[in-house]
Amino acid sequence: MTAQTDAGGDGRILTRCDGGVATLTMSRPSRRNAYSTAMMRALRMAIGEVLADPACELLVLRGEGASFSAGGDVHEFSQSLALGPAARQASFEALVADQVNPVILALRAAHQPVIAAVRGDCVGYGLSLMLASDFAVAADDALFSTAGIALAQPGAGGQSAFLSRALGERRARELMWSARRFDAHEAKALGLVERVVPVADFEHALDAEVTHIAHGPRHAYAEIKRLLNAAGEGAAGQPLADQLAAEAAAFGRSAAGADFAEAVQAFVARRRPQFGQAG
């Protein structure tokens, strides 16, 4: 099975299911697979279809070309600055709640193992997708960032939940406050990816991991995933769905502010933002 979900412009989501292995490719290489609103919708639809297909027993997430995903499309975000603060808040909260959160929840609830195949940029929403996977194979050219704070945003897609559970509150705060880039070796040391391989060996190593997991005891994998999800929520402050809803609300509130407008304008103009000048 091969399918394509167009997202308008140059963006699309490609899906292929072969031998029980579904590969979902985020395809917008001209923007390093950055997500427009249309691509977010297309991803939500494609993931829903793949996970509902009984022939697809394992899911691989990847980006076309040399990047996994550069996150949200800030150039599209800039169009929202014509809206008033209240309208902007409602728009961004709805975007996260309706397009981002369902994808994260679907990946975590899926009985299929989900493998993230990461090269190049893995930023913002791209990082969230990787964190929502069950296993990550990263090439040694991969670079990671929470990214949100660069746009005066708290982040979304479960970053606050996944990072605090994996790293503890203080390390999670450092990554989210700084939005610094870190490489694949640091990501592995932090426990955020399971394999790091040279770029030249990436496809071979990915195929080996996919084959190994695909030929394993699928029902046991699903039970382990269910148990770990339950254990993680039991140790956390609130269930993932509630944390995602809180992130969506925080994203909307931040989008209404002057710092968000300044950050987006600075990004588009390729200058350093000057925060705290108004509002």
Write a compact overview of the structure shown:
This protein has 279 residues and is α/β, with parallel strands linked by helices. It has helices at 37-52, 74-77, 85-109, 125-132, 159-167, 169-178, 184-189, 202-214, 218-235, 240-255, 258-269; strands spanning 2-6, 12-18, 21-27, 58-63, 114-118, 121-123, 135-139, 143-145, 182-183, 195-197. It folds into 2 domains: 2-215, 2-enoyl-CoA Hydratase, Chain A, domain 1 (Alpha-Beta Complex), CATH 3.90.226; 218-269.
Q: Helix count, per DSSP?
A: 11
Main structural class: alpha/beta
* Cα-to-Cα separation, first versus last residue: 52 Å
Q: What's the CATH C level of the largest domain?
A: Alpha Beta
- What order do the helices and strands follow? EEEHEHHEEHEEHHEHEHHHH
**Helix coverage percent:** 40-55%
Q: How many domains would you count in the coordinates? A: 2
Number of DSSP E strands: 10
Multimeric status of the protein: single chain
What can be said about the biggest beta sheet? 7 strands, mixed
CATH superfamily of the largest domain: 2-enoyl-CoA Hydratase, Chain A, domain 1
CATH fold node name of the largest domain: 2-enoyl-CoA Hydratase, Chain A, domain 1
Radius of gyration using CA atoms only = 18 Å
Describe the structure.
The protein is α/β, with parallel strands linked by helices and 279 residues long. It folds into 2 domains: 2-215, 2-enoyl-CoA Hydratase, Chain A, domain 1, CATH 3.90.226.10; 218-269. It is 49% helix and 16% strand. The protein contains 11 helices and 10 strands. It has helices spanning 37-52, 74-77, 85-109, 125-132, 159-167, 169-178, 184-189, 202-214, 218-235, 240-255, 258-269, and strands at 2-6, 12-18, 21-27, 58-63, 114-118, 121-123, 135-139, 143-145, 182-183, 195-197. Strands 1-2-3-4-5-7-10 form a 7-stranded mixed β-sheet, sandwiched between helices. Strands 6-8-9 form a 3-stranded mixed β-sheet. α1 (37-52) packs parallel to α3 (85-109), α3 runs parallel beside α4 and α5 packs across α6 (169-178). It starts with a strand and ends in a 10-residue tail after the last helix. The mean pLDDT is 94.
